[in-house]
Amino acid sequence: MIDMLRRERRFSVLLAGNAMSQIGDGVHEFVFVITVLHAAHNNVALAGIVYFFRFIPYLVLGPLGGALSDRLPRRALMVFADLSRAVTTGLFCVLLAIDRVDLVSLGLIGMAMTSFRTLFQPAFQGTIPAIVKTEHLPAANGATQMAAEMGGLVGPALGGIMLAAVGNPGFVLIIDAATYLLSTLCVWCAIAAHMRDDATLSQEKLTIRSLYGDFGQNLQGALQKRELFVTIGYSALCILFVGSALRILIPALLKGSGYADSMVGYAMSFIAFGALAGAVVCSKVMQRFDTRNLMLYWSMYGIALAILPACVVSTPTIFAGCFVLGAIGAFADVILPTNIQNLSTDANVGKNFSLFSTLANTSEALSGGLAGLLTLISPVGGSLVITGLLIASVAYLGKIRVEV
């Protein structure tokens, strides 16, 4: 991987910007979740409503992101998305600094950030094959995954430390706005204007109908392939439950157990640290990246999540439980994209990833509403157990579906 980074200079620059942006995203998510819980007075149902509004852009714009990245200049899309997120985050900083944040403003900020993410992600993923040699693609994809895990590890911990030091989350969030500006600079330097990526574009008329038509055709094709359907559809359903746990239930469990806000950031970092370690181990020991193994690790993840409420008795057990959860999740995270690649052709691999991204992001955004519904029928700890068992059940049904 180090040799690849030395040889692929443009990718290294792009990756550096993305890594910094991922760290900023980790800080942003930490600040966002504790701000939502404070504004909702730790009412998980109200917090879930705010997260539900983040779902709307995924539903409306998600199917368009991949098609737009194939028809418009990817560099321009990424620069626009990064600058827009920097401005939105800057506004969030001001509202936090003057203590004028409420649930409505949080919902609007969440929707804006989600909208720009749906533009950036497909363009970023489509750029990698355009600037990296074919033989270096596996290492480049691995490095991208490592950057994401490092962002999840460093970002929340940095956010927790800075919040404990300065007190006002608005000043903490300045880091995120700065990383988007740095990412913009890296995107601009890494992708040349004369590349095919920015020059040879589709001449087909760009309409909303045609973009949604492409998405619908690819969805119909995926439904007819059993393993691809299970890989994408069942994983997206698992992510619905995972999102409710990571975004709402685990932070609410820690706060409800009397831990400080900074503990939420540390716990999120241990999950990311476990994911980083798990990704390294998985790449070395895994031999079969198929749907059956994917469902197996989703089942194990659900069981680990169901056990997590028992770990709140002490800080060390919380960190240990979060680390194990992240490590198991990393196996699913590594197997999932590899399996999609194996089940796809050159003609539809990009569309299949776009389909998965849309479904997964939609599930993640809906997860807040699910968390709110669960807490109406069960305490937070019980809701976390139910969520874990649901993940394990979905994965077991997926395994049966493949074997039939």
Automatic annotation (TrEMBL):
Single GO cellular component term: plasma membrane
Predominant cellular place of this UniProt entry's protein: membrane
Q: How does it sit in the membrane?
A: Multi-pass membrane protein
Q: Which UniProt keywords apply?
A: Cell membrane, Membrane, Transmembrane, Transmembrane helix, Transport
Q: Which SUPFAM superfamilies match?
A: MFS general substrate transporter (SSF103473)
Query: What parts of the sequence cross the membrane?
Result: 45-64, 76-98, 228-250, 262-282, 294-312, 380-398
Which N-terminal stretch is annotated as signal sequence? none
Coiled coil located at which positions? Answer: none
| Entry superkingdom | Bacteria
Write out the annotated subcellular location: Cell membrane
Question: What is this protein's record name?
Answer: Enterobactin exporter EntS
Provenance organism: Burkholderia aenigmatica
